[in-house]
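Quiz preparation item.
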């Protein structure tokens, strides 16, 4: 009897190990990676979503290559978001030249998930506009972190109507009660939902996000005092 029990335990352990390996191989690990963003305005930590594996893996690759180190948060709009990831910002002394066009020579396919939305602290991929990018492909490196503002449920209803205009019912966006509650109590930028890929969430440093977002800026939304970043994977 004891031997049979031991064999069953071994079989169960083997099945669990195989299931865990399957999840890891298919990009569905239950463990989420954490990336530390140290800035001249303070420290933030973002958690990356496994539900968006293409964006997750690309971001981790760039962080490990030190791609973002010493680059700027080059576009900051209070009540909206802070944007970075342009490698050209590393040596951007001339303020007459706008930033935001730099990056690797590739883009990423959109990975829209209705449960991943633009709440405050959302980490999302920047991209070119629909006129030249109808597939809504993401920049290979540029990203933004949402600050946003509070939204009433009635505001979100109008937002749904605007976002869903011209879309078939199968592609329509409908906020859950929980999402509406988050947008009301925490804030965010719901008008971006379904248009930009959200691939992570700020889990530490909301005060740093607010501090960066409130910086005085020039006519190109670039902070008057440069805010640089350095990143590393911590999990």
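Solution:
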């Amino acid at each position: 009897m004891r031997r049979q029990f031991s064999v069953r335990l071994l079989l169960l352990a083997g099945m669990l190990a195989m299931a865990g390996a399957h999840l890891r191989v298919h990009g569905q690990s239950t463990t989420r990676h954490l990336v530390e963003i140290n800035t001249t305005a303070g420290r933030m930590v973002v958690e990356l979503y496994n539900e968006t594996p293409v964006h997750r893996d690309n971001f981790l690759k760039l962080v490990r290559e030190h791609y973002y180190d010493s680059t700027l948060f080059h576009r900051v709009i209070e009540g909206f978001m802070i944007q970075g990831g342009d490698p050209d910002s590393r040596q951007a002394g001339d303020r007459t030249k706008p930033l935001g066009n730099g990056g690797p020579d590739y883009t990423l396919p959109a990975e829209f998930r209705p449960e991943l939305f633009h709440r405050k602290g959302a980490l999302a991929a920047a991209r070119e506009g629909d006129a030249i990018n109808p597939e809504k492909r993401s920049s290979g490196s540029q990203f933004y972190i949402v600050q946003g503002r509070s939204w009433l449920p009635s505001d979100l209803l109008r937002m749904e109507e605007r976002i869903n205009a011209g879309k078939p019912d199968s592609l329509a966006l409908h906020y859950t009660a929980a999402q509406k509650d988050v947008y009301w109590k925490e804030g965010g930028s719901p008008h971006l939902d379904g248009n930009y890929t959200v691939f992570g969430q700020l889990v530490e440093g909301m005060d740093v996000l607010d501090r960066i977002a409130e910086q005085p800026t020039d006519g190109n939304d670039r902070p008057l005092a440069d805010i640089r970043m350095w990143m590393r994977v911590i999990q």
